[in-house]
Amino acid sequence: MTTTADNPLRNGVDTAALFATIDAVRADPELAKFRFRATNRWVSGTHNESTIHGFYGAKQDMDHRVASTFAADHPAVLVGEDNGPTPTEYLLHSLAACLVSGLANIAAARGVNLSEVAATVEGDIDLLGILGLSDEVRNGFGQIRVSFTLRGDEPEKLRAVVEQARRRSAVYDVLTNGVPVAIEVDAG
Amino acid sequence: MTTTADNPLRNGVDTAALFATIDAVRADPELAKFRFRATNRWVSGTHNESTIHGFYGAKQDMDHRVASTFAADHPAVLVGEDNGPTPTEYLLHSLAACLVSGLANIAAARGVNLSEVAATVEGDIDLLGILGLSDEVRNGFGQIRVSFTLRGDEPEKLRAVVEQARRRSAVYDVLTNGVPVAIEVDAG
After folding, report:
1. Total count of domains within chain A
2. Which whole number is the average pLDDT over A59-80?
3. CB-CB under 8 Å, B89 with A91
4. Tell me: the pLDDT tens digits for B115-158?
5. A93–B72: do the CB atoms touch at under 8 Å?
6. Which GO terms describe its molecular function (chains A, B) (predicted)?
7. Structural domain for B52, as ranges
8. Cβ–Cβ of B68/A78 closer than 8 Å?
């Protein structure tokens, strides 16, 4: 913590608390086991809503300060009513947010100052897959691109922070390496 | 379309428009190329916001009816200020929403009536990975589970609709099979 003792709230990150948390988890790895959750309710057509509130972590059930509800839908061009972004756009958001949250922590831990961070995430998708019109086209994005603009300390330090964020991002890991998804159905 | 002519708005889905869209794309596959986008702006610490508005598809740039902005943050237990869900929770939401939007379309196309659809999506994550405390623990979710409750027509028809939604979900495909992610950085 010596590198940040002169500025414990660098980039808005409480680095003392961050290092203390890492030390606590190192001492008791059971604290690191988290379970996140979203509950979704169909509204009509392609319109549905997820609520995010409770989660498990650090050996206890917890709640976010407020429950958040997010509407998803398809746009009119895809026969929806555009009551919210498409599910795939939320996926792009989750990747952007994970990389940006991570790099803010990493920059603070390294004593690197940020003044501005912006990211644009784009994903290319050919709907011949999900429309069942081609067996050769995959259902999901064929490619995702992330473009960062960072301002703050020296460019090479900023680039190194982004690289470490990529190496430690939960969402980047899941998107690039895949994850097992089990589905169970209560139908009646 | 004969199976749905008696009920063109089954489950809130305009099945005539859905089939017409599929026919139009079959005739001109270029219409199927979409590009979705989220832009993210760092606020402070692990707090950042994505905006979703414009996208490309059907050979043109388009906008959603409204621009949507979503805050992401880490909870207090993870040294954030809990200004919104974590990025990983948005990922779970995107999976739930994609499966539910898809199954509503598929049910309508098959003439299957839905009265209720609910889904809970949970993901297990061991933070020893992203905290850099273990090289053997991955950064992202080790496992995701989706639990559906469906009510409507016969259970076996409902279960078949969920199975087809899984087989045609863009987000399920990306999460289970992975996707290339390219990152570029403008640092100055």
Report:
1. 2
2. 97
3. no
4. 999 999 999 999 999 999 999 999 999 999 999 999 999 999 99
5. yes
6. peroxidase activity
7. 33-85
8. no
